[in-house]
Amino acid sequence: MSPLLNPREAYGQTLVELAAADDRIVALDADLGKSTRGILMEERFPERHFELSIAEQNMVSVAVGLALGGKIPFVHSFAVFLTGRAYDQIRVGVALARTNVKLIGSSAGLSDYGDGATHQAIEDVALMRALPNMTVIVPADATETVKATRAIARYEGPVYLRLNRNDLPPVFPEAEEFIIGKVYPLRPGKHLTIFANGIMVSRSLEAAEVLARQGIEAGVVNVSTVKPLDEEAIIALARETGTVVVAEEHSVIGGLGGAIAEVLRRERRIVIEFVGIQDVFGQSACNYQELLTAYNLTSEAVVSACQRVLAL
């Protein structure tokens, strides 16, 4: 696999491979197939790709009907439109009814850097995580995206898969099996533990290298499954160091940080710091890195958070 590979492209290619082996798999798009890569399904299996135009609510409702008819629908749109515009249909038709619908939120976080706040999902994990019966997954790179896509195709029940728009550095081990609900320690630590997902996994690994040169051993854990969260593993890893930083490309309200804080709420000797979007909307920029820097989603920001929490 390429050192830098786009998760969207990896997802689209994997979906086509899965569809070739299982004729129950169908795809739905809302006029964004070229971007979500649902277009790859349209090209290979046109009779199993449904274009619903800019009608996300109807798209989810159609997917529910397909699932009830025995199909495995993969529903695509930008994360902000899928989780926001179709929230009621997702809540009632997918989550409450426990239908076997896979929701693929593309261009999540700030990764659609050119289109600004209206197209940037900074609250989608919070929305989906709050729904009973919903599984929420945020892959760290293209390799994990491929493995997660295969896993959710096998899984019976509602899933929200959050995908970045841009190329991401490879961090997920090629030989590692992706298991829904499992956390993946990528680096051991003695002084603190960094829990991260998405692009912030690679940023956290970079931060750990910087901290190591300062004599600070920071463990890095990829928490790609935000829900269901492996509570036992989170508590055990946090207890090893007593100091926790959570890094995510999402609002600090309701995302991975909130989930881990909820798990650790009775752990009195553990201190926590967050690296995330500080309760503000996004904006447009010339490139993705500009936004990551502007919103303090960098390895430097992770280093600073670690230093702050260790000083408490």
Task: Note down, in words, how this protein is organized.
The chain has two domains: 156 residues, Thiamin diphosphate (ThDP)-binding fold, Pyr/PP domains (Rossmann fold); 127 residues, Rossmann fold. It has 312 residues and is of the alpha/beta class. The protein starts with 6 loop residues before the first helix and ends with a helix. The chain has 13 helices and twelve strands. The chain has a seven-stranded mixed beta sheet with strand order 2-1-3-4-6-5-10, with helices on both faces. A five-stranded mixed beta sheet has the order 7-9-8-11-12, sandwiched between helices. The radius of gyration is 19 Å and the shape is globular. α9 packs across α13.
Keywords:
19% strand; 2 domains; 13 helices; Rossmann fold; alpha/beta
Low-confidence stretches: none
The CATH superfamily of the largest domain is Thiamin diphosphate (ThDP)-binding fold, Pyr/PP domains
CATH class of the largest domain: Alpha Beta
Strand order of the largest sheet: 2-1-3-4-6-5-10
The total tally of domains equals 2
CATH architectural category of the largest domain: 3-Layer(aba) Sandwich
Average residue pLDDT: 96
Rounded radius of gyration (Å): 19 Å
In whole angstroms, the N-to-C terminal distance is 42 Å
| Helical content band | 40-55%
Please name the CATH topology of the largest domain. Rossmann fold
Helix segment count? 13
DSSP, total strands: 12
Largest sheet: 7 strands, mixed
Which H/E pattern describes the elements? HEHHEHEHHEHEHEEEHEEHEHEHH
What best-fitting shape do the alpha-carbon axes yield? globular
Class from helix and strand fractions: alpha/beta
Strand content: 15-25%
